[in-house]
Known about the structure:
This protein is α/β, with parallel strands linked by helices. It has one domain (2-153, 180-206, 248-262): 3-Layer(aba) Sandwich (Rossmann fold). Helices cover 39% and strands 18% of the residues. It has ten helices and twelve strands. It has helices at residues 11-20, 40-46, 62-67, 69-90, 122-137, 156-164, 183-193, 212-222, 254-257, 265-276; strands at 2-6, 25-29, 52-55, 93-99, 141-146, 149-150, 169-173, 177-178, 181-182, 200-203, 210-211, 229-233. The strands form four sheets. The chain has a six-stranded parallel sheet, sandwiched between helices. A two-stranded parallel sheet has the order 6-9. Strands 7-12 form a two-stranded parallel sheet. Helix 5 links the parallel strand 4 and strand 5. The longest helix has 22 residues, at 69-90. The protein is globular. The relative contact order is 0.16.
Amino acid sequence: MRIVVTGANGQLGRAVVAHLQPHHDVVGLGHAEIELSQPATADVIAALRPAVIIHAAAMTNVDGCALDPDTAYRINTLGTRWVAQAARRSNARMVAISTNEVFDGTATHPYGEYDSANPINPYARSKYAGEQAAREILDRLYVVRVAWLFGGERNFIRTVLRLANDRPVLRMVNDEIGSPTHAGDVAQALAQLITTDAYGTYHLVNEGSCSRYDLAQAALTAAGRHHVTLEPMALADYPRPGRVPLYTPLANHVGAAMGIRLRPWQAAVQAFVETVG
């Protein structure tokens, strides 16, 4: 089966390509091959005649999106529309990767797949609009929301471990709560999902939730960096251009009911840290 993966050089895209390539004809597309903000993206992808398109490419820098919301809209919203058009023209199924940040963070329980979205920053608004654009065009669509990804070269855990090399004390936000998720685990879940015709919305995250502080502590413990002290701080004391929702754990109800479950986040962090040292 020919599978096109956009964002193939990104954290999730790399994991998806690596997991699927031994079993499928996988074509990875990066920025050198497609420019998401341009309608010609649809032509490039459709010409490949894919059976499945996994659309992992996005502008994911929350602060960068806040500083340049027009570019975020062109890439995350219109770019998803062009990819969806390619899927329609190719009669391909599409996986649209979205984010926990489509929710406003005011809930008191993990967000389910059909809780009402209410994005509060330009990144989240552009991603939710991308969901809507894909749904407008396609019937054979999986919208997959992920959160707090790690697994590649640039992510929160690697940053914590790098800072720990030089600093005996680190300050970490303890009131932002989410679902840490290993990109490799998402790739495995997607491989299961695309064998089904169960189209719709999914939350594919590692089980459980924690704060940034808790995640940093787990990473340091896994790496044996016991000499580093963490100090809690409030998100409000960490000024940044993009407003971030405080509480956005995702509940995997639909996938779990189908037997698609991801391991607890603690186990995923331990496994990742063991690979990076």
